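hey so i finally got around to running the thing on that chain from the lab meeting. sorry it took forever, my laptop kept dying and i had to restart like 3 times. anyway pasting the input first so we r on the same page abt which one it is
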Amino acid sequence: MPTSLEAEAAEQRRWRLRPPWSNKNFPDRLVANEFLPTDRQLAEQSAALRKIIDFAAHQVPYYRDLFRSLGITATAIQQPSDLAILPHLTKTAFKEYRAELRARTLPPGHIHRGKTITSGSTGKPAHVEQTHLYWRMFAWLKQREFRWFRFDPNGRLAIIRYLGTPKRADTDPTTDTGMRCIDAWPSVGSCFATGPAFLHNVASPVEQQIEWLAGLDPDYLMTESGNLENLALGYQHCRPPGRLKGIEAIANLLTPVMRRRAEKTFGLPIHQNYGLNEIGIVACRCPEGGRYHVNSELCVTEVVDQEGRPAAPGQTGRLLVTGLTNYAMPLVRYDTDDLVEVVAGPCPCGRTLPSFGAITGRYRRIAQLPPGTYAYYLALVSALDHMPAALMRHLRQYQLHQYRDGRFELRLVTADPPPPTFMAFIDAAWQKATTPQSPTLHTIMVDRILPGPGNKVHNFTSDFADPPDDAAHPTTRPSVS
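ok and heres what got predicted. didnt touch it at all, straight out
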């Protein structure tokens, strides 16, 4: 079902601004922007782009030198399509030239407000200088996505994610649940009146999370995609909270198989956004059309092929993002390392914001794998997807890991020892997808699978894809049984 300006404006009225923000009309402008004619969308985005490019060319040493070396001035960039004359800003280059990417001064009205830290899922984390607009835009755009998802601001929000390092050095992060209650939803609650939020550490065992959710009985749940699949497996033996009306998967890739399992288990659609700590909330997946609409007030996105040319509709390419609001450290054509699908034509939802299609993975995690590796992983996932429910009922978590010598290890967390038929099913699927010359699969039982790089839960890891220093920090803990 398509939405409309009138429907979204009516939904926006359910959200009451807190007194310090009650005279702000920006949320209403965001609603109107969602349905602007495409030429107006382009004109407004181009104006914001010209402004930050001109600033970067004069106040940011990295771009001042780049423009000089290319023999161009800031006026060469008039609209998003002109960005193609500039090289990508890779994550490696960002870390190498981070000092030169800092602005020497800030425009009037822009206030430096600390740093964000990159996730570190493709290497060591790095700091990104931010102004007050980063935090303000994050709150406004988070509310936009909750409005699209039809979350009631008065509801109880449960959040299960990484909550930081325990305050005590001798505390085990897997037993430190970090459970706490705050009187408003994070970020959004700084601007809008909301119900309470309840937080729980994603590193805690799945059974503990399920017990916590049962006692809480929230209206909404927000958790990492990998953890959502673990919860779906955990709910094979009990019912999800009866009051649950909405779920958002965050932080990492939600595959079609993971989505099907979660939606079947919870009986609810799974919502998603796409964000970067470096930029903010880049896009939100619309419930009606299933594509990701770009927050054009925040950034410009491009999708390019392996030669750096614009990818055609239907193709998958690397996503580049140019920030429009962070003058403390402008990022132009920042290579996210993520692969997304190019879509064309209007979205069935009726919104006119720029968009891209399915997110298919992280280029760095796929490109460095030996040939055929991902096919083995997909065969395993398919086997779990088609496994009879009776065989699956003991499974709580799984992770396939590839060692540098080519061996594969399947790590399983189960409530009870799985029946022999479970292992036979897995072995048959592996043999069907491989040849006698293919790597072997060894299965081990572990008592839990900890978050990996970037403190995210991954069900596939590889020594070929993960940063070299990850080997010193294994994501599993051997079973004590």
